Each structure stands twice: as structure tokens, then as C-alpha cells.
């Protein structure tokens, strides 16, 4: 679509709106215009993992003492550290290395809020570690929690990095004898918390296929009708469209920047990455080579991208699925909260893969 179209130029498939005066100024400077065009063409999410001894960006215990035990793989006994030394390399450009001082200055007085499930917590904790460890002397901070909202404040900068635990984005309420109702067409509870936030990073997916005792609802409600169950992919899409309408109705792009974290993958089936004998991520020590995951993308990715295309307000997808699929080595496995009795191939060790999600976020914001 041309400059006169609704969405303007696109960066990684999403909006990059350039004011006319800025575009004309760029047009007078061929070098700047060429640089802008190269940035627009660059796909930050298509690339490969390369060994880089200068990584990780922080030590998980010495420089980030507040990592939750479920993500602290080294503390839990993981001795192979090769997985911490990989850097994401896009195929057609370079990522700027994370600079915590520059990020805190950019965000001075602002709020970043992650909204979603424990994968959002994984990314939230990663970002707080990256910021805390990259500034010397270490910046002063405090951590508070009220209900489902956790706030990490860098007091010297007035920067708040928040987490709202909201696994479906849409409302989940207790309603009399009916019990717990998942309302696919309602966002009343969480939506009030998200207003007037400078940067919002949303996420939902991993809870949509919970069944049995792990299923957190008794009924699903759509259009005032209750269902005992329904196709989970349909439910996921319906909820995303409700969230998309909330964005269109409530977000002022001049005040708030919206991201969607994307679909973080799991590794419980080695057949999908070419090792049929592997029944989980246990013992995996290296990423897959190249840029393509043999098993392809999860269907949820297509559903998410379809919904995002129909949102009028700017939303940038942190399209982390493929780059994370290549990291079968990056999960806690037996070095998570449950140890050998609760093999974790869904979350990610810290330091680790979510640091790259945040390094990409840093490049998009700065």
C-alpha cells in the first residue's frame, strides 16, 4: 500500500507511519532514504542463531538475583552453558545490541506493561534482568504486587515495568450456580488496567487447550449463550477478535504503543525437529541450524496474524515463534520448578531466549 493508504509503509509486516514532512526531508537526503528503505525491508524475525561468546547479557544469579526459581536453570543445577551463548542474527540486517542505559533514558517516566500468562512473566522477568544488570552501578528498584499485577520500578528513572497476569485477555468470572464463565466477547476487568499505558505487550495462547482439572472455566459464553465446550481454536480466535475491538476502541496511538508477543512454542515431540527418539527437550544442548523449523509453525500463528490484519489501530507483532522453535535447547526441562517430576519444555531459561525477544523489542522501540 502506498503512502496515501491507511497503513503506510510497513515494518516487519506492521505499521510504520512516516509524516509527510519527515518523508520529504528524507527524500532530499538519498543516504537517509536508503537507510529507511533498508530498515523497512528488514525482517527481524527471519534469521539464524550464531555462537557469540559475548552473550549472555547478564549472569542469572550474580547480576539478576530476583529471577524466579522456575526460570533459574543454572541455580537449579543445569551445568551445560552453551545455550546461553547464542545470539539471534537476522538474515538481511543486524540487531543493535541491547543498551540498558539508553533504554531507561528512552523510557524515563514511562510504563511498560506485559499482559498475559507465564510466558509474559518469562519476558517481563527477562527485561527487568537485562535493565538491572546493564547499568553500573546497578539502578535502585522496588518490586510490588497487588492482586495479579506486579510492578518493577526503576526509581531513579521513574520507569515501571509491569506484569498483569491475564491468561485469556477476555473476562473470566464467577457467576452464581453456573460457576466460572469464560466470556469470549467481553473485556471489562483487565481493560481498565491497560488504559493510558505507554507500551503494552499482550500475549495469550498456552491456556486455551487446558482440559480436565487444569481447565480454569466451567462454561464458555458467547453472545449470552453458554457452552460446555467448543473448538478451542475457534474460542481462541473469538477472544482475539474481542481484544482487537478493544484495541480499536480504546488505544490512542499517540499515547500508547501496542505489541503482541506472538506464540511461544513448546518442544515435547522430537519428530517435529528431526529427532523422533526425543520425547521432550531433555538433554538438548544446541539450537537447530538454519532458519526453518522442520515441523512448521503452530496453527495458532495463522489465526493470530489473521486477527491482527483486521485491527485498524497499529499493533506490532513480536513474531517470536520461528526463532524460538529453533531453540529446543533453551527450556528448563528438568531444571525448572518441578525438576524431573515436572519436565518443562514450554517456559525458557533465564538468561536465554526471552532476552532475544526483548532485544528485538528494544530495536523496535528505539
Automatic annotation (TrEMBL):
Keyword Nucleus on entry: no
Domain Trichome birefringence-like C-terminal: 95-363
Keywords noted in UniProt: Membrane, Signal-anchor, Transmembrane, Transmembrane helix
Source taxon at top rank: Eukaryota
Entries under InterPro entries matching the protein: TBL, TBL_C, TBL_N
A Pfam family: PMR5N
GO molecular function ontology, one term from the record: O-acetyltransferase activity
Taxon lineage: Eukaryota, Viridiplantae, Streptophyta, Embryophyta, Tracheophyta
Signal sequence extent: none
Membership in a protein family: Belongs to the PC-esterase family. TBL subfamily.
Trichome birefringence-like N-terminal domain: residues covered: 41-94
Gene Ontology CC terms, in alphabetical order: Golgi apparatus; membrane
Places the protein is found: Membrane
Membrane topology: Single-pass membrane protein
Protein name per the record: Trichome birefringence-like N-terminal domain-containing protein
